[in-house]
Amino acid sequence: MGLCKLGCVPCLLGILFLSSLELLCMADVHYYDLIVRESNFTRLCTTKSMLVVNDSYPGPEIRVHRGDTVFVNVHNHGSYGFTIHWHGVKQPRNPWFDGPEFVTQCPIQPGTNFTYQVILSDEIGTLWWHAHSDWTRGSVHGAFVILPAPHESYPFHPPDADQTIILESWYNDDYLELIRNSTLNGQAVGIPNAYAINGHLGDTYECNDTIFRMEVNYQDTYLLRIINAAMNEEKFFSIANHTLIVVAQDASYVTRFATDYIMISPGQTMDVLVQANQNIGQYYMVMRNFHDSAASSNNNLTTAIFQYKNSVGGPMNNASLVSLPEPDDSKATSSFLSRIRNLRVRQNPPLRVPRAIHRRVYIAISTNSIPCTNDSVCITENRFVAALNNVSFVSPVIDILQAYYKRSINGVFTKDFPLEPPEYYNFTGDLTALNRNVNMGTKIVMLNYGEAVEIVFQATQFGAGGSHPFHLHGFSFYRVGSGSGNFNNVTDPKSYNLVDPPLINTVHVPASGWVALRFFANNPGVWFSHCHFERHSSWGMDTVFIVKNGGTKATSIRPPPASGMPVCSGT
């Protein structure tokens, strides 16, 4: 998690120990061990036991080169099962190691271990890894840094050093208990007690919590690798008196632009250059929530310090004076996102935006409610659910990939996810009189190999409304369009950006608006798609895309690992 001098890349051969993480580098193959167990942490004058990796929060950083293969042996020394997902890694033809629980694998049970094979392809820059079971990712997560290959360079002047910045949520209560109680009583998990930057709560909360300090040299340039690992909050981030230069998003280079702030959604990563060119001193790094729904929010400022060497005293200005948009400033969000454009350089994948579309999927996003069942202890007569096209995803007890690949396991999923809303209405209008009930099921979308796919996500005003960060496993996609109101399939595509759309893996769906994505279905496998607000994903705001095999071995799913997969309970 410390500042890394570029050029001092961890070993080509031999063994490196980093934050208790053993890394064996042999050419382009790396080996890591992740030990997952409970450790005690004290924040806000409260000590809690928390499931973490290698006794650290956030977890250790994986640092490799583009195109490498990484084997990660995950040891579960905790008391319940979980999985690990390599967020933004496409895993070509390799869904067995993608990680979402009961989608591509069953949990790694306590007292067992499982080795993931992480195959990198064209990703470059910053990604991350996190648990993909219940809310466990709140404490089990870390950075996945992909440096240029030995023969490559940056498409900008190399920075003097880089620094990972992870934005996090902090709850005094246990993450697993939070979601279990929420599921039982049918209500939402409460807002976090605080937020953290690299595990530190900063100096705006009580109890004199620690603050993260990034030490810098005057006139040096730094590459910040910013990750939003928060559970349910999009974030504004800024550094007092310093200009940020955005150079990459979701492990793909973008056309550089200068800004006073960034807006980053949960699941997203952003690479930002900053030059230490101000008077020697200490300057606040500040984040706060961007929040545009009717749900409750904690809008506290959370701080870290950008500290010049040989500076003395405290930060040069109060955190509340740092220039950040207001928490509900949707214009600041849309203005920032509109500036992100694909950069046509050899270090990026060739620009291949689908033009002729074979498969269109129009998805209306909603939060809903259904009557409580007899096995619930609900606070009210209804419980919260969430849905896509009126279908609330039900997690199976046998993973979907196993059922699909073996063909002999029936009843796990159905292939009838609706490709458009079952009913058209004014999605962004007053919906109080409409029926909010949904259908429950494990419904998936089947795609033929090589199809050009367009997905339009339509936000609705059901429930608290607001924006949503949507993530698609197994792919990066082009964000070709976005707008307010209801999507019009005749007029809105005329405004699409098919020239230089950003290539990303997690997208901001604006409140009372829509976003359009395009990609080629050229990665056979079973791939999860879900809202990266954990409360929404837990309520069923998810679906699965299955890309069928092509006509050759090279266009088909790889065989499952010979050593086997984690076994589902009761099977």
Brief overview:
This protein is mainly beta. It has helices spanning 175-185, 330-338, 400-406, 534-539, and strands spanning 4-5, 13-18, 21-26, 29-43, 46-53, 62-65, 69-76, 84-87, 113-119, 125-131, 141-147, 161-170, 194-197, 213-216, 221-228, 234-239, 244-249, 252-259, 262-264, 269-275, 282-290, 302-308, 359-371, 382-388, 391-393, 439-441, 444-447, 452-459, 468-472, 477-484, 503-504, 506-509, 513-520, 525-531, 542-547.
Task: Write a structural description.
With 571 residues, this protein is mostly beta strands. The chain is 6% helix and 39% strand. It has four helices and 35 strands. It has helices at 175-185, 330-338, 400-406, 534-539, and strands at 4-5, 13-18, 21-26, 29-43, 46-53, 62-65, 69-76, 84-87, 113-119, 125-131, 141-147, 161-170, 194-197, 213-216, 221-228, 234-239, 244-249, 252-259, 262-264, 269-275, 282-290, 302-308, 359-371, 382-388, 391-393, 439-441, 444-447, 452-459, 468-472, 477-484, 503-504, 506-509, 513-520, 525-531, 542-547. The strands form seven sheets. Strands 1, 12, 13, 15, 17, 18 and 20 form a seven-stranded mixed beta sheet that branches. It is globular, with a radius of gyration of 23 Å. Residues 6-27 have low confidence and may be disordered. Belongs to the multicopper oxidase family. Residues 36-148, 163-311, 417-549 form the Plastocyanin-like domain. It is found in: Secreted, Extracellular space, Apoplast.
